[in-house]
Design goal:
The chain has 473 residues and is mainly α. It is built from 14 helices and seven strands. A three-stranded antiparallel sheet has the order 2-1-3, with no helix packed on it. A two-stranded antiparallel ribbon has the order 4-5. A hairpin with a 6-residue loop joins strand 4 and strand 5.
């Protein structure tokens, strides 16, 4: 059921990459809203035709009861047009759809896969002697998944409506079915029992550990973690089926969208109100006059500059966008149903059964052979076909390497002078030669400049050490 279309948009450089997707009917916006759009256009057209016929009949009879009804209808349409934007449809619907999509993707990622468990079973419990243990644990893991999916997916519960159907398909034995039925009777059917097969698998693993088939506590813990991950994923699916997006929010969005477009059935109508002019000067009554009369006004407040194009193009586009948005939420809020974009759970079950048993029964032991690059140590380069040669690109360079060009003069070391214990840079002088002129003469020190720099921790691997570089005199 899941509609996959990514193969049609593998290259964005083509003209109309997404336009070509509009031809797809299954899972598309056209299939999702065409019935709603047809109803909406039909109602709009019915109201418009009725108004135009009524206006035509009463053009020569101004002031009668029918013209008063038309005037009331026109005032109602103008009123609707003035206040229809008070409904914050974009904000309400956008936030709601965001929550639904996030919830949908989380459920996708929560569906348990048994591949990791099966690969670890094949690796940690090898050999013909442990074949039955591997297959038994694999079948129980799959059984736990199906027991969970029966509670949330309509397609799965139609495929396995009772425990007997699971027995007939080989996923469960008669003895196991009696154990599950006994547990259901104990809980009066109020609680999910998908954890029971996982517990059976844990017991088998414990026995394998006790008899030495599992040689390490680490391997035993890893297999237990695999089973717990499957159980945790099943629990997440049950929680999402139990705790939904608050009903009040779903109702609010539904009411907002439908009320908004009910209002547009009137607010987007083209009107042709009867012109009036004031009789007897200021303060006089308004009387209907023929169209085109100078200084005439329409008393309903309609904007006469609006052109009549018969078909409300932008209103229809708005309907497609908003109702399409709502249809996204309706489709994704329960991905375990039977819509075009719902999860193909039965197909996933078939895949897991076949692949899982293939993994745990696959006993191929590869030979230790030298690869073709053995003599080269490091392969020079893998060859490209002609079709892939255009994708061969130069080695990656960092942005600094590609853009920054350092001058040769800037590559030389500068004299960095830093005195220990001071924050600033100062010149330090050290005595290099000591002269004594005589017993009673003063000692004379000859100083020559010595430059040194003191480095402290700046987050480098040697940051905990302190170095002093003496840079010659």
């Amino acid at each position: 059921m899941t509609v996959t279309y990514i193969q049609h948009v593998h290259t964005a450089g083509n003209v109309g990459t997404f336009i070509r997707l509009l031809r797809m009917w299954k899972g598309g916006v056209a299939k999702g809203i065409w019935k709603d759009l047809l109803i909406y256009v039909g109602l709009y057209a019915g109201i418009s035709i009725t108004y135009r016929i009524g206006r035509y009949w009463n053009e020569g009879l101004p002031g009668n009861k029918e013209s008063a009804v038309l005037a009331g209808f026109e005032r109602f349409c103008v009123f609707m047009d003035r206040f229809d934007e008070y409904i914050p449809l974009g904000f309400i619907l956008g936030f709601y759809v965001t929550q639904v999509v996030n919830r949908w993707w989380t459920q996708v990622m929560a569906i348990p896969w048994v591949d990791t468990l099966c690969m670890n079973l094949a690796s940690y419990l090898p050999g013909v002697r442990m074949k039955n243990t591997r297959r038994l644990i694999t079948r129980w893991a799959m059984l736990a998944n199906i027991l969970t999916l029966r509670r949330v997916s309509t397609s799965v519960v139609k495929r396995f409506p009772t425990y007997q159907h699971l027995v007939e398909t080989g996923l469960m034995t008669e003895k196991e079915m009696k154990k599950l039925e006994q547990l259901d009777n104990t809980t009066e059917g109020l609680h999910a029992t998908a954890w029971y097969p996982i517990q059976w698998a844990q017991v088998i693993l414990r026995k394998a550990k006790e008899n030495g088939s599992i040689t390490s506590d680490l391997l035993f813990q890893e297999l237990q973690n695999n089973l717990q991950d499957i159980s945790s994923g099943n629990g997440t699916l049950l929680i999402y089926a139990w705790v939904n997006i608050p009903l009040v929010y779903t109702q609010l969005v539904t009411i907002a969208v439908h009320i908004y477009f009910f209002v547009t059935l009137f607010s987007r109508q083209y009107l042709n109100p009867t012109p009036h002019t004031q009789m007897g000067g200021p303060g006089g009554d308004y009387a209907p006059v023929p169209a085109g009369t100078p200084d005439s006004v329409n008393l309903v407040g309609y904007d006469l500059n609006i052109q009549d194009y018969y078909v409300p193009f932008f209103t229809i586009l708005q309907f497609i966008f908003y109702f399409g948005w709502l249809k996204v939420a309706e489709t994704l809020i329960n991905p375990f149903g039977e819509d075009d974009d719902d999860f193909e759970i039965n197909r996933l079950i078939d895949r897991h059964i076949q692949v899982a048993f293939l993994i745990v029964d696959h006993e191929f032991e590869p030979e230790l052979l030298k690869d073709r690059f053995w003599d080269e140590s490091i392969p020079t380069e893998l060859v490209y076909t002609r079709g892939a040669e255009k994708y061969k690109n130069p080695e990656f360079e960092g942005s600094a390497e590609r853009s920054l060009k350092i001058k040769d003069c800037d590559k030389e070391y500068g004299h960095v002078i830093h005195s220990r214990g001071q924050a600033g840079v100062v010149l330090s002088r050290m005595p290099s030669v000591v002269r004594k002129e005589g017993f009673d003469q003063e000692k004379t020190d000859i100083y020559e400049p010595v430059y040194f720099v003191h480095y402290e921790s700046i987050g480098s691997p040697t940051g905990s050490k302190r170095f002093t570089w003496l840079m010659g005199h």
